[in-house]
Amino acid sequence: MIDFSLTDEQRACRKLVGDFAQKEIAPIAHELDEEQRHSPEIVNKYFEIGLLHYSVPEEYGGAGLGSLDGCLFSEELGAACGGVAATLGGNILGLTPFQIAGSPELKKELLTTHCSGPNLAAFCLTEADAGSDVASIRTTARPQGDEYVINGTKRFISNGGVASLYSVFATEDPQLGYKGISVFMVPAETPGVSSGKKENKMGQRATDTREVIFENVHIPIRYRLGEGNDGFKIAMMTLDESRPGIGAAAVGIARAAMEVATAYAKGRIQFEKPIAAQQAIQFMLADMAIKVDAARLLCWHAAWLHDNEHRSSKESAIAKCFAGDIAMQVTTDAVQVLGGYGYMKEYPVEKYMRDAKLHQIYEGTNQIQRLVIAKHLLS
Ligand code: COS
Q: Is 1 within the bounds of a domain?
């Protein structure tokens, strides 16, 4: 049976997030972008409506919702501001390794505290010389008595300077390649943890993106997730889970661009009629709608697979890749529909275009997604 209808609860939550996004985020999205400013106020308000930690089980203080729910929220947030969507999504991403591999005792200790307030987490995987090539990370974790000592620098970390909890991937033995990587939960207040300068980004400027530096950071052995040396697989499982949601945020950006382009085309008079009367414009708008709907369905399908405990690596990669690519195409075309006005900062479409670009890069470039897809096809 195929059923595309959402439950009453899903429709209500989507409306809650959509209203929140349009009331609290969209009106200041331009300002946050111009000032390259993270907004703790938005995080506080999202916490107050009960969805900041939506994916965490209720017993640890979350809302116990699934990946498909996450897609619904991400699309609404993305439609209001890609940067804020990445901030709020970055929290869920940072917590996902914990949810996959944390012991119930550690969850009770760290996750419950995290979810009791408007706190953000961050996923610390990427390094200066290890982006797509996860296996080559150089941050080390050395066992010392009943502790681990972590040393290294993570780069391009979303929520890097504003998170209170980090999931940190580090190698216990660089000679072992991906088989030597473990993952640790590290509270930001731990001595030796600091953040570097804020990156000056092209888009998604409302997200605080920085280096996170670990200098002789001592953490108890129990802060390691899983069995040890299984960090690579935990990272891959995390990305399988997060990619439909990140794709959905791209769908939101594309949808917003389509809506602005459609409204503009109806009102812009050239040659004595609205430009929407020209087939050239109609075809561009129709192609936007095709792409937005197709991407949304791919994201929902991948999320549904995950929620129903099916392996979703290929479908998650397809969803993230397609949604990121169409977001770039749709936003670029939206700028074109608005012409000279689209290129100006008075209209939101140039921001959509800048925000969309990152969707082809982060959480695995779209070239990496194609590698994952091809590997599944060929294996
Ligand atoms: N779930 C569980 N296990 C997985 C997995 C997944 N999705 N993907 C791979 N694995 C396992 C494999 O089964 C294999 O295990 P065994 O050693 O037991 O056989 C192991 O992990 C190595 O897998 P594989 O050989 O496929 O790894 P590759 O080095 O060929 O490919 C890619 C890894 C390139 C796909 C990976 O490094 C990647 O996704 N890179 C992008 C990282 C990224 O997204 N960075 C952005 C950071 S977040 S902003």
A: no
| Within-domain flag for 211 | yes
The answer to whether residues 239 and 333 belong to one domain is: yes
Domain hosting residue 158, numbered range:
121-229
Ligand 1 and 132: CB distance under 6 A: yes
Give residue for tokens 């936007």: 288
CATH number of 146's domain: 2.40.110.10
pTM of structure: 0.97
In terms of domains, do 126 and 221 share one?
A: yes
Residue 178 CB–ligand 1 contact under 6 Å: yes
| 193/264 same-domain check | no
Q: What angle do CA 298, 371, 313 make, to 5 degrees?
A: 45
Query: How many angstroms separate the CA atoms of 214 and 244, rounded?
Result: 30
Closest Cα to atom 12 of ligand 1: 233
240 close to ligand 1 (CB < 6 Angstrom): yes
From the list 236, 238, 219, the residue with the least C-alpha distance to 140 is 219
Q: Tens digit of pLDDT for each residue in 220-250?
A: 999 999 999 999 999 999 999 999 999 999 9
Tell me, yes or no, if 363 is annotated catalytic.
yes
